[in-house]
């Protein structure tokens, strides 16, 4: 097990189980603004059985086992037990304001407390913060690909509309050509009719 000491205003470098605090009642105060945007301080409380593991000498004697949930992105819950000195101690549940948990998440900062001692639970991609970031990045990629699909549909619609307009233009040109040819045929027929009439008049005069 890896035990860490985090000082006031310092950031937690991993998800930790809270063991001891310089505050006499075994509590400390943290800020979670980097995780959820909230600037109000939250209370964390260590199990009374571990309050003595505060100094480096005493912390080096710590022996225990943590049984807990699999890594997840839930900031305000943590289910597990601490097995210590042949006892199984359930980790406390939070109240409605997410107070009194006995765990710290990566990215939180310590406030109004000289220092705390904790034992590492999760690091790297298994921490709650990185689980949240992974979820957000996957959501963004899904949204991005959906936008691309919509753009492709609009482009296909534009192409279809362009084809329709081109077809209509071609039909219009053919119709105009047909009308012109009809007018030309009428003009030619009229010319032939006039020539025939003139020829008949000449024949009448000669007779």
Automatic annotation (TrEMBL):
One of its GO terms (cellular component) is Golgi membrane. One of its GO terms (biological process) is phospholipid translocation. Keywords: Transport. GO terms for molecular function: ATPase-coupled intramembrane lipid transporter activity. Coiled coil: none annotated. InterPro entries: ATPase_P-typ_transduc_dom_A_sf. It comes from the Eukaryota. It is found in: Endomembrane system. PANTHER family: PHOSPHOLIPID-TRANSPORTING ATPASE DNF1-RELATED (PTHR24092:SF180), PROBABLE PHOSPHOLIPID-TRANSPORTING ATPASE (PTHR24092). This is Uncharacterized protein.
């Amino acid at each position: 097990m890896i035990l860490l000491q985090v000082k006031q205003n310092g950031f937690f470098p991993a998800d930790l189980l809270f063991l001891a605090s310089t505050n006499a009642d075994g509590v400390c105060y943290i800020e979670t603004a980097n995780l959820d945007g909230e600037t109000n301080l939250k209370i964390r409380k260590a199990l009374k059985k571990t309050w003595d593991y505060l100094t480096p000498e005493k912390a080096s004697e710590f022996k225990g086992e943590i049984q807990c949930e699999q890594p997840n992105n839930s900031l305000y819950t943590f289910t597990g037990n601490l097995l210590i000195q042949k006892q199984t101690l359930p980790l406390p549940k939070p109240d409605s304001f997410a107070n009194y948990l006995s765990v710290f998440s990566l990215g939180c900062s310590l406030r109004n407390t000289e220092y705390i001692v904790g034992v590492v639970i999760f690091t790297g991609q298994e921490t709650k913060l990185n689980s949240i970031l992974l979820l957000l990045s996957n959501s963004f990629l899904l949204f991005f690909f959906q936008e691309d699909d919509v753009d492709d549909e609009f482009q296909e619609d534009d192409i279809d509309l362009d084809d329709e307009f081109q077809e209509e233009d071609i039909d219009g040109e053919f119709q105009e050509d047909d009308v012109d040819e009809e007018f030309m045929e009428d003009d030619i027929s009229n010319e032939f009719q006039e020539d025939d009439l003139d020829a008949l008049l000449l024949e009448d005069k000669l007779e």
